[in-house]
Structures are given as C-alpha cells and as structure tokens.
Design a protein that fits this description.
There is one protein chain. With 211 residues, this protein is α/β, with parallel strands linked by helices. The protein has one domain: Spore Coat Polysaccharide Biosynthesis Protein SpsA, Chain A (Alpha-Beta Complex). It contains seven helices and ten strands. The strands form two sheets. Strands 1, 4, 5, 6, 7, 8, 9 and 10 form an eight-stranded mixed β-sheet that branches. Strand 7 and strand 8 form a beta hairpin.
Length: 211
Amino acid sequence: MASGMPVYHRAMPVPSSDVTAFILAGGKSTRMGTDKAFVELNGRTLLSRMLDLARSVAMDVRIVGDAAKFSRFAPVVEDVFRGCGPLGGIHAALRSSQTDLNLIVAVDVPFLSTEFLEFLVTRSRASQAIVTTVRTCDGWQPLCAMYRREFANAAESALQVGGYRIDGLFFPAATLVIGEAELHEQGFSPDLFRNLNTPEELSGADQVTDR
C-alpha cells in the first residue's frame, strides 16, 4: 500500500443493505493440496478472514460452494453449472441475489481491506456499469469485483456453450475499469490482489495483519 492511510478511508465502516457479498469457495484447491477455505493464516482460516471482511461492507454475505461444507458458516449458494470454474460461481451468485449490486470475492485473497472494498462499492454505486473491476499490469481482477445482476445473462450464455473466461464478458461499454494509476491515487497497492495457491505462498504470507 502507498505510504500512510488510504485516501479512501472511513474509521467506522457501515455494512450496506443494497449490496450482497459472495465469497467464491468452490475451487478444487489442487495446488494447495487441501481445501483453501480451511487453511490457516496467522491462526485464522482464509474463510473466516473473508467472511469478516465481507461483513464489514455488506449486511448479506453468502458463500458460493458446497452446502455440506459451508452451511454452518453462512448461507450457501451452489453452482447451477457445475465444474465450470469461477464464472459458474458468479452466475449462481447473481441468479440467487436480491440486490442489483453484488460484490464477488475469492476466498484466497487475504490481503484485501475494508477500505478498498468500500471504495469498490462506492465506484460501482455511482456508475451505471454492469461490472466494476480492477485491471493492473498483471491483468484483470475479476474475483474481486462488483457485478450487477444482469451480468448473469451474459455468464449463462457463455456457460451454455462452454465459455468460461470471465474477462471475455467485460464489454467496454458496460465495464468500469479501475486502473493501477487510480489505485495508487487512492492509496491502494496492486498487492491487495495477491492470492494464495500453494503451501509455499501460504507460508510466505504470515505477515498479514489481523483485522
């Protein structure tokens, strides 16, 4: 993160009622060797971290994944198109949502902050864009993004013909892109989107500060 406090900051975040937050936890975790949702970082599971983070910005927080594994932690949404990766999870989330604005985050990005998610929600709320997402020099960040419900239509059309790329559905006229320059202007670092896929990455991430 840039020096000092992020430019976008509120000392007392208030969870929003017009946003539903979904945590994607349905991945196979092949490279980690065990379910990433339940691996621990500084004594807390990644799922616990992401639930707390999501609840800091949204009153309604749900998990997209296997109900048998996750229903004791929060309401669960299961994929309609099974085995289709994150796009299938986003589609299921949006089809289940009662709000137009929806925050989608993956379970394995523990470096995200409440301040950044508030910024993302605010930018989406002020826009008519169907998708509000970040694009850094490392590429799109579709698993920490805001989606309006109508994105489910494009997702379903793609899934029906075997298309699983999320960013292939980010049509310019309907997508608000937050670039790296804007991130830096607001005091945020692209390192926020660093995810944990392997035991080695997990062991190197022990400097995450508890929220």
